[in-house]
Amino acid sequence: MVSVRKGLLQFLFAGSFMKRWNDKHRSMDLVEVDKQAHKMMVAWMLYELNSEGLSEPDKLALGLEIVEGGLFEYLYRLVITDIKPPVFYKIKANPAHYRQLTDWVLDQLEPRVRELGEGLWQRLTTYLAVPEGDSPARRILDAAHLYASGWEYSLIKRDNPWDDELLDIESSFTGGLARFADLRGVTDLADGLFAGKKTPLGHFGRLLGQLRFQTRWSQTPRIPETSVLGHMFLVAAYGYFFSLAVGACPARRLNNFFAGLVHDMPELLTRDIISPVKQSVSTLGDMIKEYEERELERRVFSVLKNGGYAGLADRLSYLLGMEVGSEFYETIRDEGGSAVRVTPADLDGRCNLDAFDPKDGELLKVCDSLAAFIEAYTALRNGITSDQLQQAVWRLRNKYSSVVLFGRVHIGALLADFD
User: Fold this and answer.
1) Taking the model in full, what pTM does it have?
2) Closest of 252, 403, 264 to residue 327, by C-alpha
3) Can you give the residue ranges of the HD domain (predicted)?
């Protein structure tokens, strides 16, 4: 039986504390969870672009390998914390040393992860046993990692003019991405980041990266502060693990991860307008949604379509629930390929098949709320006293006290584990 526990949710959130580039001068904190979000967004783009000629089963298998590989790499990173990349690369180059480190990492992960099921645990141990590989999934993840890290480098480059490592660092990113030039989309991304060219994918990749500048709970002091970008990764990770817990079919698991990963992307265009404000003015929610849709079309969808990436734009539209009215509506594809809203019961019953391309709504909303709960709960535990945070924790506990996802996951009991 698959079980999602408090310890796993908090462990995944720990990436919000992990500082990156902390041996360089930085004008803002760069944290691990933000980088992982950006990496997996780029991995999604490369996955969509490089799987177009595959059969549906092969495409689905590749997508799941990318998602789980990304999650496994993040879990590994959370354990080894701040080992500098040059040191870690030397460890990876020595099989005996890498095996020793990985055995220790697995010992740390087992109490938190094994309850997600023996199948996932075996896939994790198998994946982490091999430090590197040249499978399509690993190559996509490696390219996405280089892009996301290179994007961070572009932020700190001007702040460190005296640093004699900078040229070598930049060369490692440009040279590394050049090795993946055979993957469709990589050259566009690299040219947009390092060559200053205006490319459709480069524009989209940079736009997504800007979500790390947008702080959640912007009017409420918190430790740690979290960005919209990092929050979306947490929702995606929670969504994938809850999908396992409710017995979601493979396509539904995959869609739930990627939908969680992009669900707040429109907030880049409107800022994070808090729920009480949206709810206090009867027409404000509709006004915001109309503006978001117009700006998404202008700044994202039209750029991708005009640049030759119409398929990517269409897939993003499906994940955002544009055709059915909300990212939090249960959605399938009908026989004609149109997006159709269905009930949660139908999604979990007759539509829980890969052929329907199913995507959850309520489950993702629960994960969105859980991520917000942990943000507020952690800040309170870290000594930040705030009426807004206390009210948020109380409101979410009360809202979900009796909610059971598809008769399998009791959200109220999970929240009760948080003292």
Assistant:
1) 0.94
2) 264
3) 209-392
